[in-house]
Amino acid sequence: MTALFYLAAAVELVVGTSLLFSWQRDRTQVFARKLGLSFFGVAGSVIIFSLYSDAPLDSPVNLWLIPALASISLYFLTSGVLDLTGSPLRGWRAVLLGSTLFILLTGVAIEVDSWSSQLSVSIVYLSVGLLATGALRNKSRPHRLIGPLLLLLALHPMISANGDPAAITIQFAVGAVLRTALGFAVLYVALDQSATETRHAGERFARLTEYSLQGVAILTTDSLLYANPATLRIYGAQHAQMLTPAFLSESTPAEERQKVITLFRQLLAGEIKQANWEGERLRLDAARRYLHFFAYRVNWDGQYAVCLMISDETERMDQNRALLHRATHDSLTGLPNRGALMQRLHDYHLDPAAPTHLTLYLLNIDRFKLINTAHGYSSGDEIIRAFARAIAELPGTSGQLYRIGIDEFLLTVEDPARLAQLEQQLLEQLARPLPTALGEFYLDASIGKASYPAHGPLDESLLRAANAAMHVAKTQPGSHIVSAQASFEQGSSELLALEQALRAGIRERHVYLCYQPKVDAASQQVIGFEALARWHRPGIGMVNPQLFIQAAETTGLIGELGTLLLRNACQQIVQWRAEGKASLPVAVNVSPLQLLNPHFPQLVMDILRDFQLPAHLLTLEITESAAVQNLEHTCSQLRELRGNGIRIAIDDFGTGFSSLSMLRNLPLDTVKIDKALIDPLPGREGTAVVEAICKLAAVLGLGVVAEGVETAKQADTARRAGCNELQGYYFNKPLSAEDAGKLLH
Ligand code: C2E
Ligand code: MG
Ligand code: MG
Q: Where are the alpha helices (DSSP H) in 307-367?
């Protein structure tokens, strides 16, 4: 009998241990652990029972220990079976069940009634068995076996109901067999559920990866264990065998290979948890793709491997590249732009391999605005394209040319030995007509040149030096290359300071007009004024008008200043009229740049209308050189002005290069002979020149004004030579508005 006890206990222990092992393999199968513990509980109570079989029925072993072990065993059994049925026991219910079982069994034991204790155990088995039979009836066969086995275990004590010792032995043997069968059924269920779970997880993984757009691959350092269809697509492979480790390694650029191998080793060794990298990879068809990799370690069929998530970022990269290209290149010519140039200069700063010499040529197309105005913007664009092509095609300039402004290009040359030849080629190219889709154009360019290290460090200051040199080149007609000098930049910084001060001067009304009278040559009566700009610069004093007018022209302020002065002059005439003084015409000087504005005539008419001033009271003085520069454009502008009744005078006549035909064609009212031609009077030759001009003017029906008359003799000679009006210090210096007003009175 004792041997049978031990055998039964051993079987219980083996089954319990197997269940615990199965739980350890797959910890989601909690019921296996609980049932395993329940088997241990039974084994424990059997061993104790056999060890203390001689102990009296009311000993602590029989009263407390065995009921405690039995209730633990029953507790785990119930809880495990409930887990299996899908309604696990938790919280207060678990506590309630545990304590009820304990109280029940110890209560029965205290009564020391083995029949009652058998009965209570059987009731527990019976209820759990009924529950399991009902709840597991739709599950697999081993599931369905658990309930009936529990019922049989509940009923088997009936074998020894008559108390026959032989029947007790049989009951014991039957109990052991039933328990072993129950243990195996539970073990089978645990293993089966675990396998099903694993299969489901595998299917879920497959579903996720098979349809994923992202590549998923499992690799060790020397083999590819798995690759989803997206991985095959990304690499252009038909099946996974094509993605050999050798190919994957070759597809990685040589310089990145070692880095990737090291990352793999670190991942496999668990030194790093995850890694990210990206770069260009070659597909099987040799096409380049830009791939991003995210990797981490996985346990794959019992061995460590790296799971790679691969995203094809080629399109995003192409878009980024296109955006970057757009940001750093000029859309018209495709050349790198100013931003790219600044970046390159900045990069040199950090680059140990920066060139030891670098020369910048800053090319600015002369009078490009005029081309735009005369031919329209699309023609201007075409000419810019043709110009860029012509320069880029010069030998050795490709990749070195930037378009940094509307009509401005920059050429960089590293080899100082090439400079002389390149400069010659540049000037030759500029001397040739430029073939464009619109026909041939002759373009001049002013070129500023600055070299590193001669003219400054390798940064933006070199560009400034080239720019200042280009502005000096602009002062000479035709295409010229001017090399940088420190004084140029100083000049331009002075110009900048002047511009700033002039802006403030305009705003604060420190710029105003003086009026120099013009007298009738015969009667010497005042018959009009010339308005002359004056600027009192605070802290400095009066600034030469030629200087600040030129500064306003170079900085683009002239438009604003010119309009302001024109309005001031008109307002002054209106004021004099309002004060009841004589209405005399006032001549206002107009810069050639103001005339370039196609809306200038309209602007003048608007001002006249604003002040309700008759047009004949306003004369505009245009310098001869300005009129010559853009004859056709000037002509049409002046014609429009004159058509509206405004008088036009050609200023500083005799200093420019106007021809006879030009005088005929320009719509003019008056010629103002420059002071330089009046100075020699009353000398014979000088007088003859003035006479000739006056005769010519008379033929053309133009009035003549002699400028800069300083002496009575000059005045007299000029009058006799045929000048109708005289202006100069001999009569009056430029007067303040107030003094001029007094004169009118
Ligand atoms: P301009 O239009 O030829 O003006 C005549 C210049 O000769 C004035 O010089 C005047 O003061 C000066 N002048 C007149 N009579 C005599 C004389 O007997 N002897 C000498 N030595 N000079 C005499 P200013 O005012 O210095 O102006 C110089 C130039 O600046 C002007 O030459 C004109 O080209 C330009 N300018 C002056 N005001 C304006 C203006 O409002 N707008 C524009 N665009 N240019 C202006
Ligand atoms: Mg003038
Ligand atoms: Mg003049």
A: 314-328, 338-350
